[in-house]
Request: fold
Amino acid sequence: MNASSVLHRECPLCRRDNVREPILSSYSPTDWDLKQCPACGFVYLESIPDYAQTAQTLAWDHTFVAWHAERDRAPAQQVLSRIGRNIRLGTHLVRKRRRMDEMIAALAAPGPVLDVGCGKGSQLAKLPPQFIPYGIEISPGQAEIAQRMVASRGGAIRVTPGATGLHEFPPGFFTGIMMRSYLEHESRPREALEGAAQALAADGVLIIKVPNYGSVNRRLFGRRWCGFRFPDHMNYFTPATLARLCTECGLAVREFAWLDRLPTSDNMWLVAQRACRKPASLSAHVTNRAM
Ligand SMILES: [Zn+2]
Reply:
């Protein structure tokens, strides 16, 4: 990869420039330096591929086979994989997870529903008929397949980065937005969540699923943890950093189950909605009284 296609990032959560801070050397491959922000604790890739590289050669459907081959190569890894599967199985026995389309059907009002990073549209295809499926997808080939499916239901797919496309819809357009295995891939997660906050209806819901960097499996597996995919995964959320970023982007956390916030969970599911804001006139009144 040439230097012009690699971008430098400030901390996506607090915007601190950590260029002089040390890398997390136990996890970082040579080309993709992982940093933990000393100000806010967020873990992220500091140098990242640009969107063109992400769309063409680093999309998950291109890197899936190589990732599994490397992860399963070592015998010790196979033992650890069995331990990790047992931990996940124990969690699932406590609570059966609903699918994303089932959660939308239960929580969102009928109307337009957006899948950010929709791929070939398999998740949109499962939505019940009261929803009009829309998607954002950075890969033109996958978007073309998804477009054929959603067009018959009155929806559309936009070929653009999520952080850009979310700002192109009218305010309050969607009753539901899905971000499943998307936000960890997005180089501008703050802009993406701000876009979701403006595109959601007043009673709309945003459902997020991301890997949990705070999981015990990350400590157990080290660099071979299933949540590490370099450079596909650029953001590594813990329960605290995910909730903080949502709140700072104009969202209110509606559901964040305690089981998802435990270290036994490799993944986190969070349901958010638009935060209530005081009318400008009321805010001015309160400010004047305080003075
Ligand atoms: Zn930070």
About this structure: Residues 11, 13-14, 16, 37, 39-40, 42 surround zinc ion (CB under 6 Å). The CA atoms of residues 53 and 271 lie 31 Å apart. Confidence is low (pLDDT under 50) at residues 279-291.
